[in-house]
Design brief:
By secondary structure, the chain is of the alpha/beta class. The protein has helices at residues 2-9, 26-34, 48-58, 95-99, 125-131, 134-145, 150-163, 169-179, 191-202, 204-218, 232-246, 276-281, 310-318, 326-329; strands at residues 16-19, 40-45, 64-68, 84-90, 219-229, 265-267, 272-273, 289-295. The chain has two domains: 2-95 and 223-238 and 258-329, Vaccinia Virus protein VP39 (Rossmann fold, 3-Layer(aba) Sandwich), CATH 3.40.50; 100-202, DNA polymerase, domain 1, CATH 1.10.150.170. Strands 1, 2, 3, 4, 5, 6, 7 and 8 form an eight-stranded mixed beta sheet that branches. The longest helix is centred in the middle third of the chain and has 15 residues, at 204-218. The relative contact order is 0.14.
């Protein structure tokens, strides 16, 4: 969706832009082509291989800054502290990550069951599956994968690991397929399980919420935020974030009058999907959804956080104090979707 992203970001030649998910640089190249000598492009990615690719291609360009890390921590990057004219998040897994069996993201290629976007940080999927309780596994599959057979799959995983560790992607894919009934679903039976475990291992939704907050604080008035999501959980978060900062909340005449709402964002058009030509060339783009919003001049700092310094926001997130930390909106979802709840096979 490069053309749609460029249209949404509305790049100006002396602006400062941040690509929070560099990948292999498809969007970054297009932004850089539009920048003049005074322009600036900041690149971030969790993946050390992506950062190495960025250093090889753009490291010698004085207009480019490169930082390894999650976009959730962009507020702690001094280069971004001066204000940004555009921020891009291209969510999910990149094609190079999916195509390399050794990264463990794909059930179509046998490899070690890792799934970490930063393989040097956190626990791998295999390590998590080896120790997580059955209920926790079921809740993660249900919440992050919307997997109807989550309890059945969780039981099968716990039974299998008692006999032998689940260390390979092919092992997990075969186990899920054998544990779920055959139906009319056209996707592989392991699709939702792999998605859910990947989201959990990488804290993707918590990072997305923190990154959206940090981007809003870093953007200058008139700056644009563009986010490409690939499943409904991500898109719902982005859609609600924009609406929360663009539209006044419903009022209740029985409650005391709240402070006047002042919008901080405005949505730029409706959600956009990849065009047919792009989907034909890249079938993975068929589920992509792009949303773009523009920061307005003055707004109300929601719960006081909207007025925080970006670096302070990042520090608070690391200490677990930010309302967007994993412990606030995305805990291990025991209470929200208990494994014993009805309606789940």
């Amino acid at each position: 969706m490069v053309a749609q992203v460029m249209e949404g970001l509305r790049v100006v030649e002396d602006g400062t832009y941040l690509d929070g998910t560099f990948g292999r640089g498809g969007h970054a190249r297009c932004v850089l082509e539009r920048l003049g000598e005074r322009g600036r492009l900041l690149l971030m990615d969790k993946d050390p291989e992506a950062i190495a690719a960025a250093e090889r291609e753009f490291g010698a360009d004085p207009r480019v800054g490169i930082r390894r890390g999650s976009f959730a921590e962009l507020g702690g990057w001094p280069d971004a502290a001066g204000g940004l004219d555009g921020v891009l998040f291209d969510l999910g897994v990149s094609s190079p990550q999916l195509d390399v069996a050794g990264r463990g993201f794909s059930f179509g290629k046998d490899g070690p069951l890792d799934m970490r976007m930063d393989p040097e940080s956190g626990r791998s999927a295999a390590d998590w599956l080896a120790t997580a309780e059955e209920r926790e596994i079921a809740d993660v599959l249900w919440t992050y994968g919307e997997e109807r057979h989550s309890r059945r799959i969780a039981r099968a995983i716990v039974a299998q690991r008692a006999a032998a560790p689940i260390a390979r992607t092919a092992q997990l894919a075969e186990l899920v397929a054998s544990a779920t009934p055959r139906g009319a679903d056209r996707i592989h039976p392991a699709t939702r399980t792999f998605q859910a475990i990947r989201i959990h291992v990488n804290r993707e939704l918590a990072d997305l919420e923190a990154g959206l907050d940090a981007a809003l604080e870093a953007l200058r008035p008139g700056g644009r935020l563009a986010v490409i999501s690939f499943h409904s959980l991500e898109d719902r978060i982005v859609k609600r974030f924009v609406a929360r900062h663009a539209k006044a909340p419903p009022t209740n005449r029985r409650l005391p009058e709240a402070a006047p709402f002042v919008p901080r964002l405005r949505a730029i058009g409706d959600a956009r999907k990849a065009e047919s030509g792009e989907v034909a060339a890249n079938p993975r783009a068929r589920s992509a959804v792009l949303r773009v919003a523009e920061k307005l001049g003055i707004g109300n700092g929601e719960s006081g956080i909207g007025k925080a310094d970006p670096a302070q926001l990042t520090a608070r997130m690391r200490r677990g104090e930010s309302r967007t930390a994993a412990s606030s909106r995305f805990p291990i979802p025991h209470s929200r979707f208990p494994a014993s709840a009805g309606g789940r096979p």
